[in-house]
Structure prediction request, 446 residues.
Amino acid sequence: MQEQAWLHGLAAQLPQVWREGIRVEAALSGGLDSVVLLHLLRRLREVHRFELGAVHVHHGLQTAADEWARFCAQLCTDWQVPLRVEKVRVAADGSGVEAAARQARYRVFAASPAEVVALAHHADDQVETFFLAALRGGGLRALSAMPRERLLAGKCLWRPLLSYSREQLAAYAARHHLPFVEDPSNGHQIYLRNWLRLSGLPAWRAHLPHLARHISASVAQLQEEAALLAEIEAADAALVCRGGVLDLALWRGLGSGRRRRQLLNFARENGLGGLNRAMLADADRVLCRADSGRWLLAGGSLLAHQGRLYALEAAWRQTYPPGQEGCVQALFSDGLWQLRPSENGLAEECFARNGRIRPARSGERMAVAGGSKTVKKILQEAGVPPLLRTDWPVLEIDGECAALIGICAARTHAVRGGLLPYWPPLMRWVMHRRIGETDGFTVADI
Prediction:
C-alpha cells in the first residue's frame, strides 16, 4: 500500500514537459539512491509509457570506478534499460574535487539525448544542501537548495525523490532486494558534506527530532520567494536590456538591489562569469554616475560606453573572419555574413570586383561627402567603443576602404539603397543614430 502511494506521488509530480513517449534518462551511480530511482521509474513506465534510459558518469576518481561502471551495465542489462557510460576528466580548479566532479556530471546531463534527466537526490540531501549553503554564507538562491525541477540546456532536471528520506529509500531497497554499490569516500569526513551527514546533523537531530521537516518547510518557503524574485528580475531585464545591451539610463531607475541583480545576471547570461561583492559594488557605484567603465571577469569584460553596457567576450577579436580575399559577392555568400539594403550601401558593381576583409588600420581614412574622414572618427560617431575601433572589419577594394562593415560604404563606392554587409555579432556595438547631417550618410538602419 505504501509503495502504491509512492508511485502515485511520483506520477502526481511528473514534470510539466511530460507527455506520452517522452524520453527520460536516470542518472545512475550504482549507489542505493540511484538504484531505487531507476527501479521506481521502471515501474512508473509501465503505466505512463515513456522511454527510459540511464546514464553512468565515470569520474575515474576511485579505484573501483571501473567496477561500478560494470555493475551499472549489468543492472541495466538485467532490467532491460539502455545505458550510456560517459567518462569525464575531473580537473579541480581551486573550487575542490567535489565541485569539479559535479560540474563534469552536469555537463554530461546537459548533453543528454533525453528531454528529462532524473536525479536521485532525496530529503536528507536537501537538508545537507541547505546547511552547506548557510555555512558558506550563501544567499537566497543557495539557501533555496535544490528545486524539484529546473532547466539545464533545454532539458528538465527532475528530482522526484525529494519528499523521501534516505531511510525510506533503504527500506524500499531492502523490500525488493535491490543490489547497489557503496562509495568508500562517503565515510571520509574531510569533506564538509560527509561531516554534516555523519557528525553534524546527527547531533542536531538529537535535540530537534523534526529537524528535517522544519528545514524542508523553510526550503519550500525560500523557493517560493526565489521564484517571486525571479519574476521581478525578468521584468526588470525586459525593461533595461534590449538586444544584448543594457540601457544605463533605464537601469539607474531601479533600486540598489535590483540594479546589482541585473548586473550579475547580465554578466552570467553573456558567459562572462560572476562578479564578486567588491566588483559588483564598484560597478554599481561607477555606473550610477558615469556612462563609461570596464570590469574584467573570467570570461571577458563588462564594457560601458555612451550610456550602454555591453558584454565583451574574451575572444571578441575572433568574432569575424578577417583576411578573406576574392570576389566581393563570394566573400559575403558563406551564410555567416548578411547583406541588407541601406541608405548608404555598396553599388551593385562593387560585388563583381575583387576585395578583401581585414581589420581597420590606424589613421586610415574613408571618402565621405565633401572630402574624407578617418575611420576612427566614423566609428566613434557610430557609437563603437574605443576598444573595438582598431579591429573593426572593413571591406577593401583596390587598396581603398570601400565599406565599414555594418556602418556605411565609402562615397566612391556607395549608392542610396545599395547593399551593406553585416557581421551580426558586431551589430550590438553600433548606436542606432545619425552620424552627422553634413556627412551625407547615416548609420545603417539596423
User: Anything to note?
Assistant: Confidence is low (pLDDT under 50) at residues 433-446. The two ends are 64 Å apart (CA to CA). The CA atoms of residues 368 and 411 lie 5 Å apart. The longest strand covers residues 338-346.
